[in-house]
Design brief:
It is built from ten helices and nine strands. The chain is α+β, with helices and mostly antiparallel strands and 334 residues long. A five-stranded antiparallel beta sheet has the order 1-2-3-7-6, with helices on both faces. The chain has a two-stranded antiparallel ribbon with strand order 4-5. The chain has a two-stranded antiparallel ribbon with strand order 8-9. The structure holds adenosine-5'-diphosphate and magnesium ion.
């Protein structure tokens, strides 16, 4: 920390008096300038800008010192602690989370942690979804997904159009892969944020960094809300929930998004309501109309789940009608 006091003292010019007695003309000039000048209010040493700056810097340092280091005990004991800590640290530094409470889900590609939310977020808990670094190797590379969203190149510049040629982002360099994964996660975050802002039933988003997304936590302290695949619905719940999910699919399509991996595994259920999650494979139908098959599959899987509640629906007809309402005629190959 630079000490402004020392700096000022060192830089001070020695004062030398050359003339003791000013001449008549100088005395007259001094008198007029004194008369013209407004009297300056006396300022205390403490109120000088340098002192004020130094004081506020000290206060900030003090705050940093009293803030405990981010080392959640839940993570510290894990073998993979280093990358988990470095993934979550930015959320702690930005005062979005204060602690990591438990692992809500551990998967092959991503782990979801339930975190204690910083009071400034207005939430009690937040869910941090962190992608494993090995994702950088095993990125899902299906052409239909890759060509249906904006990719970023090594410099982070968006690449537009249905590019079939390997670009910087799709070339197999480490930097290219990293750019691709970061772009993938950013797309998941931006899709979910846009849907939330349009009142869709998705968790609110808070932040994202290279390999992690921070969002509203759905569920209680002990356990996350169950997935739709894990619950048995009451008879009278099925129809309104089916309608709600179809409404969400249609709303997303109207905003230029298809979930692309929707099923009862990617829908959380709590207190009679559903929340759609996991937009990692979302695609933009305006970018590439080949994705009609993904819309159809999302609807088929939804219908399939509700079929065991005696809810009969023609998934293909629903997908067709929905596409025509928002995108126009079906693509030739559909
Ligand atoms: N916002 C959330 N709140 C609570 N639990 C969540 C949340 N997001 C994900 N989970 C939990 O983590 C699991 C995996 O999340 P998901 O986004 O589907 O990732 P994956 O790519 O591993 O399928 C979910 O099934 C759910 O149990
Ligand atoms: Mg999932």
């Amino acid at each position: 920390m630079k000490n402004h006091f020392e700096y000022d003292l060192e830089e001070e010019e020695p004062v030398t008096f050359v003339k003791i007695k000013p001449g008549r003309r100088e005395r007259a000039a001094q008198n007029t300038s004194l008369r013209r000048k407004k009297p300056q209010p006396k300022t205390s040493y403490e109120s000088s800008p340098d002192v004020q700056r130094w004081l506020s810097e000290q206060a900030y340092d003090e705050m940093e010192r009293t803030r405990p280091a981010f080392n959640p005990s839940l993570v510290a004991s894990r073998r993979d602690a280093p990358w988990i800590l470095s993934s979550l640290m930015p959320f702690y530094d930005q005062q979005l989370i204060t602690d990591v409470l438990h692992e809500a889900h551990g998967g092959k590609e991503a782990t979801v942690f339930c975190c204690a939310a910083h009071p400034s977020t207005g939430m009690e808990y937040l869910a941090a979804k962190i992608y494993r670094p090995r994702m950088f190797r095993s990125l899902r590379n299906d052409a239909i997904y890759r060509f249906s969203r904006v990719q970023r190149d090594e410099e982070g510049q968006a690449e537009h159009g249905n590019k079939r040629r390997g670009s910087a982002a799709t070339r197999k360099t480490e930097r290219g892969r990293a750019a691709q994964v970061a772009s993938w996660i950013e797309y998941e975050y931006l899709t979910q944020r846009m849907l939330y802002e349009h009142d869709a039933d998705v968790p609110q988003t808070f932040a994202y960094i290279g390999n992690a997304v921070l969002m509203e936590y759905i569920g209680g302290f002990e356990e996350p809300a169950p997935r739709l695949s894990d619950v048995e619905l009451a008879e009278d719940e099925a129809q309104p929930l089916f309608d709600c999910i179809m409404h969400n699919i249609e709303q997303a399509l109207s905003l230029g998004r298809i979930h692309g991996d929707l099923s009862a595994y990617n829908i959380l259920y709590g207190q009679g309501e559903v929340r759609l999650i996991d937009f990692a494979q979302a695609v933009d139908p305006y970018h590439n109309s080949d994705v009609y098959s993904l819309l159809q599959r999302d609807i088929e899987r939804t219908c399939h789940y509700f079929a065991c509640y005696d809810l009969r629906a023609d998934a293909r007809a629903l997908a067709h009608a929905m596409w025509v309402r928002h995108m126009g005629p079906l693509p030739d190959f559909a």
